Amino acid sequence: MLWISKNLITSLLLLITLGTISLRAQSEPLMFYSASGGVGYYNPLAKEVPGGLMLDLGISAILSDEIFSLNFSKRISEQIIREEDYLGLDITYGRALELGQKWLLEGHFGLGYIRQKLGFLAFETESVDNVDHAIGLPLRAKFVYRISNSVGFGANPYLNFNGLETFYAINLIFQYNF
User: Fold this and answer.
1) DSSP assignment of 133-172, as one string?
2) Domain of 110?
3) Contact assessment for residue 168 and residue 157, using Cβ atoms and an 8 Å cutoff
4) Measuring CA to CA, which residue among 107, 92, 87 is closest to residue 137?
């Protein structure tokens, strides 16, 4: 029952966000801005839990100077006693700042949904699974060096505050600007 109410809250927040964008888009065109993909390392702030590999994909649209992004992340972690399956989906709002002709800095914040499944080995052959869901507050920055007007490489530091496992990540990214 609690999971249904979390889904309802998430759906309402998404509808409010999309409704606001839609109202603004009636007077100005909403255009694709960029697509990015990256790989990096994540680490939970709880020190007793080890980190691992993180994959990240994102698509962004721009309205005036405002950037709206949809990011999908997948953490990959397998240790001897703990197996993790993590999926994250973030909707963020941000702005970009030109730092000279070649450098671009983007800052984003927003809301996210997290699905995390933890498996713990018990008695060598059995596994105990625990699936949790949470709403997160993601903060993201992108430092991009543009090698052309549409292609760039850079770093994407990321922090996600949530009720399950607050963590940070640093991803190396490829970004294509439309």
Assistant:
1) EEEEEEEEEEEEEESSSSEEEEEEEEEEEESS--EEEEEE
2) 30-177
3) yes
4) 92
Distance between CA atoms of residues 177 and 81, nearest Å: 42
- Angle of CA points 41, 46, 48, to nearest 5°: 90
pLDDT by residue, tens only, the chain of 178 residues:
444 566 666 666 666 666 665 555 556 788 999 999 999 998 888 766 678 889 999 999 999 889 999 999 998 765 555 566 788 999 999 999 999 999 999 999 999 998 887 665 555 555 556 788 889 999 999 999 999 999 999 999 999 998 888 889 999 999 999 9
**For the whole prediction, is pTM greater than 0.85?**
no
Residue at 110 is within a domain: yes
Q: Are 68 and 28 in contact (CB under 8 A)?
A: no
- Assess if residue 119 is contained within a domain: yes
CATH number of the structural domain spanning residue 67: 2.40.160.20
Q: For residue 102, is it within any domain?
A: yes
